[in-house]
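Working notes for the structural subgroup meeting. M.R. asked for a predicted model of this chain before we commit to crystallization trials. I am recording the input and output together here so anyone reviewing the notebook later can reproduce the run.

Input as submitted:
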Amino acid sequence: MGFVFFILTGFFIYHVLQFYSSKTKESAAAENYIYVLLILSLFVLLTTEICSAGNWISAITIQIIWIVLAITSGIFWWKISNRKLFFALQWKSLLQFPFIIIFGVTSITFLICMFAFPNNWDSMTYHLGRVMHWIQNGNVNPYATHIVRQVSQPPLSEYFQMHFMLLSGSDKFANLVQWMFMTGAVVAAGRIGLHLTGNKTVARLSMLLAVLIPMGILQSSSTQNDMAVSFFIVAALLFAIKAANKNFKLQEILLFSISVSLACLTKGTAYIFLLPIIVMYGIQAIIKLRLQVWRALLIGIIIFIALNGTFFLRNYSAFQHPLAPDTTLQNTFIGIQPIATNTVKNLAMHFLSPWPAINNVVTSIVIKYHQFIHTDINDPRFSWEFSPPFSASQLYPHEDYATAPFYILFFLIACAYLLFNMRKHSWKISIYALVIISMWLTFSLLLKWQVWHCRLHLPMLLASTPLIAFYLNTCRKSVRIVSIFVFILFALPSIFYNYSRPILGKDSIFTNSKYDQYFFNQPTNQKPFFDISAIMQRNNLKNIGWIISGDSWEYPMWVLLNDETHLRMEHILVKNATQKFEDASFIPDGIINKMIEPDSLGRIYYHNTIYQVVYENDPWMFMQKVGD
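Returned structure, recorded in token form:
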């Protein structure tokens, strides 16, 4: 029920913005939706930080906050707008083909969000695991954990998930965080297309292409953060373009700075993707503002520090670094070689197919290319050591692996078209294409290749849709229709046969049980988790210690024990930088152990207390305090 107040807050804010848009004769319903998402993000961030400072994070506190925000925004709307609803929808345009497809895709993915339970691997380890620790602790401060990412990674998307979970009393709406930002990213892509070309057809095509990206479709119903960061990056692109068009008015400077700051607070890869955007923004600002450019710079720095400062301080207290970067993911050195190898591998990943013969050809071409440039295709300086070797293996619609071959192909064609027809079109489009190319090159320059990179490419795929739409609009109508049909056809498996959350087939989310869905991506964990939780409940064990690896599942245990009162779960015998936060007074009743080998009697010792193995299902063990 509490989740309704979040929706009402957004509803009222949107209509207040619509009211002022109509007053200023700038009725831009689409951009107002983007503004609403930015405002809600600021609300979530601000209220989380305030509650964390007083150890007040709880269901009651968060529900009161959103009730107050809903009532306040509702009263404001009631006072200023004479209770008029400003939908600003042109129903005839909504019945056009692009909007019918957009509505269909967003409706189906919304349905998946409502019926599916979280089951993404990273969510089971750190995205949702960190949320449960924050709720337990009443704050978002660092804590001892074997899963370092729970503390070190930017937290904004998980702040949203925490609010949604506390408002609803479960994780039922946790998937909606990414869906919400997917809709925002689609709208932002359309606005970029409009501001670049002034052509409504390009804007609609941009939105259509954005909603059909297979990885975007799959991410929109997951509890990762790739779609969330993509929204903020695409929004930053939009406001950078608007700022250049409007001579860097204060509103555009503020919106750009907020989008950049929130992107960095959502996912670390934002720094890579934003670098070319900020360079483009900075050059334009210098040209337009000249000596007054310092004002835009100062505003940006102040907003960035204000929104990211507390996260930086928490990370510094834990890791002596504001970002706690994982250096194993960074290329060993910066130069032409990492660009030459990783750019080709990153692009080639998207040309997988269901047919092994084609995949073998792709792999062979990439291998021969690396032989030509005298570079090992799996050189550990440019490839992550824990990633499988490069290979164009079989394609399937999974949120970690889905590809977008036609987006890459049409992006390259669009860039080639611009290169040979530069004088025919606005210079803004060429600069925009250069920014997207720079994003790909910067990504390859800085990050080691890994098999999961298709997921990280999502911001660049979304940003490329206005450019592809622009090119398609220059083609003959028949070519455009066939191309759109191909994009739609390629999106269908991701819509209906999402590997983790299918709506068709024997494992459909409509027929699979809640718990079967949680463990769908790692079914071998289901029995030990059920067995261990049963032992804990049977013996009324309330204080539980975890000794696990940095990529182990944790969140499902919180779900299985959701009805337990006074439950406390902490990580113990931590051997990383978060060890300093371990509570020495915590004596667990039982220990979930994957890492420490017991002695010959099946025992381990912790704080002068003996723990005996009472359950084992390799690699999981449960150990109970002797005497309990």
